[in-house]
Amino acid sequence: MKGGIGVIELDEIREAARLLEGRVIRTPLVRSDTFSRMAGAEVHLKLESLQAGGSFKVRGAAYKLLKRREEIGPLGVVAASAGNHAQGVALAARAAAIPATIVMPVWASMGKQEATKSYGAEVILAGDSLAESISIAREMAEEGRPFIHPYDDPDIIAGQGTIGLEILEDLPDPDLIVVPVGGGGLIGGIASAIKAVRPETEIVGVQAAACPSALEALRSGERVTVEAKRSIADGISVRQVGEANFPLIRELLSGVVLVEEGEIASAVLALLERKKVLAEGAGAAPLAALLASKLAFPMGCKVVLVISGGNLDPPLMERVVRQGLLKEGRIMRFSACIEDVPGSLARLLSLVAEKGGNVLHIHHARGGEEISSFKTRVDLEVETRGRGMIEEIKVALGEAGYEVLVRE
């Protein structure tokens, strides 16, 4: 690191790129005409979701292992992770023919456990929290297995910085680069590379509002530990930014913005529908910031969004997509009371159909203090084209005499 502000040396990042060539995927930078029109800018997506292991993590892990290969004994390395870092270390270790042991919290998803095992790592389920898993992994490191930190390590940061070099090779003059922030290794590496080559480019971080550790650190002027609420952007839910990363965040970033859960879900949905790109919550956070107008930039400027990963478990994907549809008004949920006689339900459904609504789910609720003995409550979930159609359906039902309770 340089003496003044702790920036990772550009030569170090270039050395990382040299070692990683042919060992990791050089991910594409693609322009999105759709998102460009929406934002009034030239929007490009750096698709680390297409990286080996489904995220950027393999870059830092691979560089760390290749650089320190001679220091690693027969027991190999140990790491702790609930997801992407686990898979990144496992892949990097397999490529370097090094044994890897990954400690994962007991609640880690089965999909990520199996993926990590499939890459050749030994998985140990231990710890009720990631912090506990890290503590256990560090104890194992004392037995002679180097501990591979997910973000707070200069080698890891330099490895992630190779993304910045690739961006500049494909787009030499970006005006703004937007990067997810958890522990800070990804944005620290990218910012170090970009600022060394093109200092006028602005770098902005994005965090989930559920865990604003980097933003609070910038506000207080020092690393702080924040409360972390549950988030669909679990990959960036890190309660305290790394010690090696905070100087980079403080000195190189133009700022950090927060996005809400619904905004993240909408971005996951938009990437899936508009670009056929599957992104996890953390990976979609930069697009969430763009679409929610959290970023300030001149019209027509060149914006790069780093889509950091695509490891979205199928059960969670279903819930996230559904949340995105609700947020965008693509699903209408409402209740209405109808006469409990033949034909009443058909008349209600015909009104919905006339306005173009597609019924997804329907439930009858008979009885109850709030329902007349001669009526039944119908709970409906209807697919729509957006909030305009929802209003049309509400008006049509109201004019037909139905009392409608719309549920968000």
UniProtKB/TrEMBL annotation:
<dbReference type="GO" id="GO:0009097">
    <property type="term" value="P:isoleucine biosynthetic process"/>
</dbReference>
<keyword id="KW-0456">Lyase</keyword>
<protein>
    <recommendedName>
        <fullName>threonine ammonia-lyase</fullName>
        <ecNumber>4.3.1.19</ecNumber>
    </recommendedName>
</protein>
<dbReference type="InterPro" id="IPR050147">
    <property type="entry name" value="Ser/Thr_Dehydratase"/>
</dbReference>
<dbReference type="InterPro" id="IPR002912">
    <property type="entry name" value="ACT_dom"/>
</dbReference>
<dbReference type="InterPro" id="IPR044561">
    <property type="entry name" value="ACT_ThrD-II-like"/>
</dbReference>
<keyword id="KW-0663">Pyridoxal phosphate</keyword>
<dbReference type="InterPro" id="IPR001926">
    <property type="entry name" value="TrpB-like_PALP"/>
</dbReference>
<dbReference type="GO" id="GO:0006565">
    <property type="term" value="P:L-serine catabolic process"/>
</dbReference>
<dbReference type="InterPro" id="IPR036052">
    <property type="entry name" value="TrpB-like_PALP_sf"/>
</dbReference>
<dbReference type="GO" id="GO:0004794">
    <property type="term" value="F:threonine deaminase activity"/>
</dbReference>
<dbReference type="InterPro" id="IPR005789">
    <property type="entry name" value="Thr_deHydtase_catblc"/>
</dbReference>
<dbReference type="Pfam" id="PF00291">
    <property type="entry name" value="PALP"/>
</dbReference>
<dbReference type="GO" id="GO:0006567">
    <property type="term" value="P:L-threonine catabolic process"/>
</dbReference>
<comment type="similarity">
    <text>Belongs to the serine/threonine dehydratase family.</text>
</comment>
<dbReference type="GO" id="GO:0003941">
    <property type="term" value="F:L-serine ammonia-lyase activity"/>
</dbReference>
<feature type="domain" description="ACT">
    <location>
        <begin position="333"/>
        <end position="408"/>
    </location>
</feature>
